């Protein structure tokens, strides 16, 4: 592989990426501000949960359709149209709020619509990135995207809070519209996304048959399909443990200290930022499947198993930081593997199938984690018994000790799954084929 400059061939991508980051920051500030507004209106956690559901469901339900359209239609037009619809949603909220007519249920409907459009926007944007970026820069680009996502997650709450204090919800919504305008004009005027050459079969096959083509492609490529099923299992256990119950663990163990939770969450965001910088600056891993499985193993071992063994806030921060750095390395290398092995003319459909399979296990993990914590492990650790006394030596006996046991079990399971996958020779074919491609 020939040596390349750090940002060689990334001019158009960097322009698009920077404008989309600005837009993402505006959207994240709006989501933060609206969550506060909704909670102040209703005073219930379920109202916020329903908002999350409205934002999450459409991306699963309609992703297959979005993938097919992203492969068949002009990516730039899809992205521009989705930007317009998103801006219209924000404008509608601004008008309703300014006229004192905004209701919580309005936000549920608008969020569902925006999430529906986002499933098309994200898919088209993913394929557009592959078209704009040289293959040898996939790892660095994944790092840049992870970096901007982490930066937005850090800045949005702080800026959103400051803007709410200075000018209220209206100023947040106005700035969100400005950020939409920046992204829209940049894409319309300055970015040219190459077209994909389709074969005859793609153009003539039925739309619904094309929607399932992503699944058929994965079934024919055993290594890719297995690694996606691996990620689905990992997502399930992550939401069952540390990723889904971290707030419960910290608040229970710290006696409800919100500052402690804030410190852990800030550490996680900074860790993701650090991981992104490492991916951008370091030489890309030669064996990316090994990087995926080893980083995943470390994430579970440190971020779940080791974290559960202490009641120290600083230990939680340290272990969380390490695990989120490795989780970022895991995600970026997985993205590179998919971009490298999926033909560009099929990436919309295949990435949509990938997202649906991987994310389908998340709701079950979240639900089961809550049930096990509330009705099994927490009550068990509150009642003295021979087993409970042995576990208490490691995890304590007060509130949160049951969640700590879940963390430990999940951490060991995730570590074992990752090591077993690392030893599977099937995945080595992905690295071998990649070497040929490069």
Please, could you describe this protein's structure?
With 438 residues, the protein is an all-alpha fold. It is 83% helix and 0% strand. The protein has helices at residues 11-42, 45-61, 63-72, 75-98, 104-132, 138-190, 200-204, 207-211, 213-220, 222-240, 242-253, 258-281, 288-306, 313-341, 347-382, 386-395, 401-423, 428-437. Helix 1 packs across helix 6 (138-190) and helix 6 (138-190) crosses helix 14 (313-341). The protein is globular, with a radius of gyration of 22 Å. The chain starts with 10 loop residues before the first helix and ends with a helix.
What's the total helix number? 18
State the order of secondary-structure elements, H for helix, E for strand: HHHHHHHHHHHHHHHHHH
Give the amount of beta strand, in percent. under 5%
Q: Whole-Å distance between the termini?
A: 6 Å
Percentage of residues in helical conformation? over 70%
| Global morphology | globular
Enumerate the spans where pLDDT stays under 50 for 5 or more consecutive residues. none
Summarize the biggest pleated sheet.
Answer: none
What is the β-strand count? 0
Please state the CA-atom Rg, rounded to the nearest Å.
22 Å
Mean pLDDT: 85
What is the structural class? mainly alpha
Structure characteristics:
0% strand, 83% helix, 438 residues, globular, mainly alpha
């Amino acid at each position: 592989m020939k040596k390349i400059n750090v940002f060689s061939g990334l001019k158009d991508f960097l322009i698009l990426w920077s404008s989309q980051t600005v837009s993402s920051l505006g959207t994240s500030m709006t989501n933060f501000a609206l969550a506060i507004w909704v909670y102040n209106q209703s005073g219930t956690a379920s109202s916020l949960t329903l908002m999350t559901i409205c934002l999450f469901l459409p991306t699963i339900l309609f992703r297959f359709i979005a993938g097919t359209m992203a492969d068949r239609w002009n990516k730039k037009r899809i992205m521009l149209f989705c930007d317009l619809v998103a801006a219209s949603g924000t404008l509608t909220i601004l008008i309703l709020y300014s006229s004192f007519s905004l209701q919580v249920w309005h936000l549920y409907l608008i969020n569902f619509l925006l999430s529906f459009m986002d499933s098309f926007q994200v898919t088209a944007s993913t394929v557009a990135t592959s078209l704009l970026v040289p293959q040898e820069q996939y790892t660095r680009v994944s790092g840049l995207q992870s970096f901007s996502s982490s930066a937005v997650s850090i800045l949005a709450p702080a800026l959103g809070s400051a803007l709410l204090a200075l000018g209220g919800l209206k100023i947040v919504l106005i700035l969100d519209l400005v950020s939409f305008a920046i992204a829209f004009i940049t894409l319309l005027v300055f970015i040219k996304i190459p077209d994909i050459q389709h074969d005859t079969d793609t153009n003539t096959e039925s739309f619904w048959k094309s929607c399932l083509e992503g699944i058929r492609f994965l079934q024919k490529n055993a290594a890719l399909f297995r690694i996606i099923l691996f990620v689905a299992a990992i997502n399930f256990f992550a939401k069952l443990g540390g990723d889904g119950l971290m707030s419960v663990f910290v608040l229970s163990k710290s006696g409800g200290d919100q500052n402690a939770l804030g410190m852990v969450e800030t550490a996680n965001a900074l860790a993701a930022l650090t991981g992104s910088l490492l991916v951008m600056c370091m030489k890309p891993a030669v064996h990316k499947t090994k990087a995926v499985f080893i980083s995943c193993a470390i994430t579970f071992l440190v971020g779940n198993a080791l974290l559960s063994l202490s009641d120290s806030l600083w230990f939680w921060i340290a272990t969380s930081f390490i695990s989120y750095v490795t989780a970022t390395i895991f995600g970026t290398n997985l993205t590179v593997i998919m971009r490298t092995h999926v033909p560009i003319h099929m990436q919309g459909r295949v990435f949509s199938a990938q997202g649906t399979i991987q994310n389908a296990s998340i709701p079950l993990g979240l639900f089961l984690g809550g049930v096990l914590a509330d009705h099994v492990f927490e009550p068990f650790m509150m009642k003295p018994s021979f087993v409970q006394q042995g576990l208490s030596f490691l995890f304590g006996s007060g509130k949160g000790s049951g969640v700590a046991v879940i963390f430990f079990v999940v951490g060991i399971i995730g570590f074992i799954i990752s090591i077993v996958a690392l030893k599977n020779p099937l995945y080595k074919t992905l690295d071998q084929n990649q070497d040929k491609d490069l």
